[in-house]
Write a structure and sequence with these properties.
The protein has 571 residues and is of the alpha/beta class. It has helices spanning 4-9, 13-20, 36-49, 65-77, 88-103, 116-125, 132-147, 152-158, 170-186, 192-205, 207-216, 230-240, 265-268, 270-273, 290-300, 330-346, 364-373, 390-405, 411-421, 434-451, 458-471, 514-528, 555-558, and strands at residues 26-30, 58-62, 84-87, 110-111, 189-190, 219-222, 246-250, 278-282, 284-285, 310-311, 323-327, 354-358, 378-380, 480-484, 493-498, 531-540, 568-569. Helix 10 (192-205) packs parallel to helix 12 (230-240) and helix 18 packs antiparallel against helix 21.
Length: 571
């Protein structure tokens, strides 16, 4: 176990201040690439090591299963394995399952896997014809209503300002939302948001439960606090019960989920809510080259709550100026980006350290075609999860079965023998398509052998695989990543290409208000700050189906060489 002094020694001056401020309301404003996760995990571990925290009384909250898994892994390595690190939903579901038999009796309602099917049944009951896309939009409206802590009546009052499905009238939307709730109650089911609502309701209405919950957890740390919704804030307030040992961590410049109910004002107003709050700013960027940091700062200069990032001056962190290019068409842009990626691969950049980002999923089609033509392997983030792939599920089952009878061999031999029986080889197949994709998946499992600590047994390796599968902690594939700007948040690569930077895409066409356009600016900022060394920005003058485009208004702010101009043409 690392001693308390050792925990602090690993931090810079700003991070150390954050780690040593253990009690009372604390707000850590952490810019992109400033070591936020390091700061908060060392803060928690230091609190445990110094005796300020009992591990079982600390709750670290975040928003994704992947982030929660990373927090748990880091805390375990720092000697704070007893700390609970969960998503809001996982924490609420755990409490709901524990207290429901006491309050209501029996087991809690089953959790819906998705809303679309039940919404379809609601439409049938109302004799409405609704297509799949409209059902998805309705599901998003249900989620927004609930995380915004609005009743159906409250939603009706706000519906005029919402982009509700055009195929339905406001009255039909409200009828569908109510019928969906009625069917859910009849079938004794909960949706994802009901878990938070029910947990909050139990704590609010049952003093005995409130006392038990508050006795269990005393210290709360909330990561990505700029993404908290009114419903999550309500639940957090109930967990706290008026106590003040709350540490929040966030960056207003990375608020990109307002459309889903996130409210950055909880972060921005923290000092007003807690007037004696300790505020720590993490502004030393350790991720990106000074050239990329300067580009990010230019984009956010003067925006509310924006931090000014300071890059490392080390020679090793220097990089080229970000490139801004225009292309004649979408296809030309996709091919140009593919050729740039190919050049980076030939220069020695690993494929898993290259990403191409875009605003909407449909933009990936031309890009996939161009990368395939160039012979570049890629993976689409947000497609089928790694551990849900059939070949991966088969491999894990086969490895697990073999680990029962095989022991004493080197780990590499045991795993490779099993994977060879499933089609893996040390050299990748020359063909593309499903065969290559299967090999990439099996090779990613082989890659985990290299990450295993010395002396790991075959059985221990398969146990770790099962834990990864449960937590969806995916290994790194040797392939270029394609992702939307939203799904890239929390990730980083050596080289990042952002394409489609034209009006109508960034900012997106339906962003018309100042607040919506500002969110598009923050979304581009998130994309820029994913890059460590190489950054390429591009746009196409001609849409694939005709019609001219104008460069994104943000590009003029970013092009240092030609103020007011969108960049150098590449035809």
């Amino acid at each position: 176990m690392i001693g308390s002094d050792g925990l602090l020694a690993a931090l810079d001056e700003q991070q150390r201040v954050a780690a040593e401020t253990l009690v009372g309301p604390v707000c850590i404003l952490a810019g992109a690439g400033t070591g936020k996760t390091r700061a908060i995990t060392h803060r928690i571990a230091y609190g445990v090591a110094s005796g300020a925290y009992a591990p079982g009384r600390v709750m670290a909250l975040t928003f994704t299963t992947r982030a929660a898994s990373e927090l748990r892994g880091r805390l375990h390595a720092l000697g704070a394995a007893g700390v609970a690190a969960r998503t809001f939903h996982a924490a609420a579901l755990s409490q709901l399952n524990f207290f429901w038999p006491q309050v209501v009796g029996g087991q809690p309602p089953a959790i819906l896997g998705g809303k679309a099917r039940l919404l379809g049944h609601a439409a049938e009951r109302l004799k409405l014809k609704v297509d799949t896309a409209t059902l998805r939009d309705l599901a998003a409206e249900i989620e927004w209503r609930k995380v915004s802590a609005l009743s159906i009546e409250g939603y009706a009052a706000r519906a005029a300002s919402r982009p509700t499905p055009k195929a339905l009238s406001a009255e039909q939307v409200l009828a569908l939302l109510q019928t969906y709730e009625d069917l859910k109650d009849e079938r004794r089911q909960f949706d994802f948001e009901d878990v938070l609502l029910a947990c909050a309701g139990m704590i609010e209405c049952e003093p005995q439960i409130a006392m038990q919950v508050r006795e269990q957890y005393r210290f709360f740390i909330v990561d990505e606090y700029q993404d908290v919704s009114p419903l999550q804030q309500q639940l957090l307030d109930l967990w706290l019960g008026g106590r003040r040992d709350l540490c929040v961590v966030g960056d207003a410049s990375q608020t990109i989920y307002s459309f889903a109910g996130a409210r950055s004002e909880y972060l921005l107003d923290f000092e007003r809510r807690y007037q004696d709050a300790s505020v720590v700013r993490l502004e030393h960027n350790y991720r990106s080259s000074p050239q990329i940091v300067e580009t990010a700062n230019r984009l956010m200069r003067g925006r509310a709550g924006a931090l000014t990032l300071h890059a490392r001056a080390d020679e090793a962190y220097q990089g080229p100026e970000p490139r801004i290019r225009s292309y004649a068409s979408d296809i030309a842009e996709a091919r140009g980006v593919a050729q740039s990626v190919l050049g980076e691969l030939e220069a020695g950049v690993p494929p898993e350290q290259i990403a191409v980002l875009y605003r909407v999923n449909v933009q990936s089609a031309a890009l996939e075609s161009a990368l395939s033509e160039a012979g570049v392997s890629y993976q689409i983030r947000g497609a089928t999860r790694f551990f849900d792939l059939p070949e991966v599920r088969q491999a894990i089952l086969t490895l697990r079965a073999a680990s029962v009878s095989i022991s004493g061999e080197p780990l590499f031999k045991s795993v490779s023998d099993v994977l060879r029986s499933l089609g893996w080889a040390q050299q990748p197949p020359e063909t593309r398509g499903a065969v290559r994709e299967r090999w990439d998946s099996l090779n990613a499992i082989m890659g985990l052998v290299d990450e295993a600590r010395p002396g790991t047994t075959f059985r221990e390796f398969t146990d770790e695989l099962l834990r990864r599968q449960a937590a969806q902690h995916e290994p790194t594939l040797a392939a270029v990543t394609l992702a939307t700007l939203h799904s890239a948040k929390g990730l980083e690569w050596d080289a990042v290409h952002i394409l489609g930077l034209s009006e109508g895409l960034v900012p997106i066409s339906y962003a018309t208000s100042f607040e919506q356009i500002d969110e598009e600016r923050r979304l581009l900022y998130v994309g820029i700050t994913r890059a460590r060394r190489l950054l390429s920005l591009s746009w196409a003058e001609q849409a694939q189906r005709g019609g001219s485009r104008a460069p994104s208004r943000f590009l003029a702010e970013l092009d240092k060489r030609r103020p007011g101009a969108p960049g150098v043409a590449a035809r």
